[in-house]
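Re-running the complex after MR caught last week's input typo. The corrected sequence lines follow. Everything else is unchanged.
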Amino acid sequence: MSTDTVAKAPERAAPPALGHPARGRAFRDQLARVVMWVAFLIALIPLVWILWTVLSKGVGLVLDSQWWTNSQKGITSRREGGGAVHAIQGTLIQGVTTSVISVPIGVMTAIYLVEYGRGKFAKAVSFMVDILTGVPSIVAGLFVYAVWVTTFGFQRVGFAVCLALVLLMIPVIVRSTEEMLKLVPNELREASYALGVPKWKTIVRVVLPTAFSGIITGVLLGLARVMGETAPLLILGPYTKSIATDLFGGYMATLPTMINQDRTESLQPAVDRVWAAALTLILLVLILNLAGRVIARFGSVTK
Amino acid sequence: MASVTGVSVADELPGPDGRGPLSGDNAGTGRLGDKAFAAAAKGSGALVIGLVTLVGVFLLWQAIPAIADDKVNFLTSREWSVSDSDNLRFGIVELLWTTVAASTIAMLIAVPVGVAVALFITQYSPRWLSRPAASIIDLLAAVPSIVYGLWGLKTFTPWFDPFQIWLSDHLGWIPLFSRTGTSGTILLIGVVLSIMILPIVTALSREVFAQTPVTHMEGALALGATKWEMIRTAVLPFGRPGVISAAMLALGRALGETIAVTIIVSTLPQGSKWTWSLLNGGETFASRIANNAGEFDSPAKTGAFIAAGLVLFVLTFIVNAIARIVIERRKAFTE
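Corrected-run output:
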């Protein structure tokens, strides 16, 4: 409110500047206001359009209970029916495995940066986290392929996918955890030290619990990012139509590869399944995002 | 909420003892538990450095033999035939053109719109709207890229195609818009990429605009500036480094985007004629790798694709490093 009155007052009181008709300035001011509103509305269009397209084309199958209980085993693109449980399961298994590996590394790195980091080494770590944030997912996939398949001669399996996703998830967790740890008031640490608690115990028992909800938010946002990733899966995780739970043997289906598999089909049953899989994926990612934001909103560190 | 740059409000405020961020508090007791924990933390940091280094080393190690076996110039050839491992012929110039052209179009659209949206959120929107507006724009970043690809191919392409035909009919005399007859074009993917990188530009610009010192803004207004003049003279100059680094981060994302490009852009047949047209298909580094991911069998063949991946890695590394350096320098100036 206060900024509003501040902003409007000079408009009324503006004296006619020499050589610049006041009307022109007021017009440009109004024009800028309109442009900003229009830019925002334009930015909304693709979001609404995408969500509506996916929702309207995919909702039919997603509401079918079979979608959540059956796999695609034995179903050709000509036939209707079958579900996505194999893909949903694969996405969840790989997502959880990826988190289990990346959360400790990411959180410890953030602890290092905030609680210990000093000098050149900390700067280097921080810089590398930024670079890792920018590594394209296909490069992460290629890297793991170069290590896992070309160098060690292993097969393309679910676990290799997880390794590639770890590379993408670590920077997200480091950044959000770092942010939260910085918000923990120093007085808490000092109070703990004053009671004779060693530094590591202070971090584990005082700092981390205070920042806990923020860390969970970071993990959920990271999880949402890696679950929607497709590029590493193209290289490392071929699709299969049946349920597979073994990360170290055989192929494992995921929602992105399920979409990718049938995206060129023109037969209606397959097209329907592609949209339904896309809707399922969006729902999964959005739920994780919303959960992360809600936890952030209600559990944030306040002084 | 995590900031895009890792630069947060907490960084700007040194503690009561004047200690800046990233300094540690020297409170370790030297006991075993402390030593072990500190080592574990430092080890994780070292692991992160190691990972990035390993990515570079492994890609180099596997790309070099392939590049050495390359019968044509790796940087300037348009050929790409890697099926015969005794006669590898591959060059990246076409991939580079498509990648750079598509990302440039995306930037040309996303940066102005993204900055305008950020200004809207921080300066113009009614207070009740600014937070929801920010979350809604962030949602664009949450949509998986394969969904962008699917939507782009099935819904957006038929809608956009008449515009492309109009463009080639009326502006076809410009080489950039000459007609080729494909609908999955570089221009189209540029537009889709601009939607995908918009939230990155907006998020970071929003962050720096919100940090504009209130005194600067009030000073401008007190001197009789209109709101727009205040933004031009106080907010934009203050936020310029942030906007530049936002644009760089967004560029990094656009360069490396894989699946949406793979789905939307039509690939060209081998040996087709070179054209500068943006209304033509093509392949970016990422989509060339993705399109052939099923055929990685011999090391030589894979090496060619890893070489392409290496170039992409180097490109994004440079772009991201620039983004980081720009924002670091801003921090140094404002303190």
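None of the earlier attempt is carried over here. The first strand of chain B starts at residue 80 and ends at 81. Strands of chain B lie at 80-81, 89-90.
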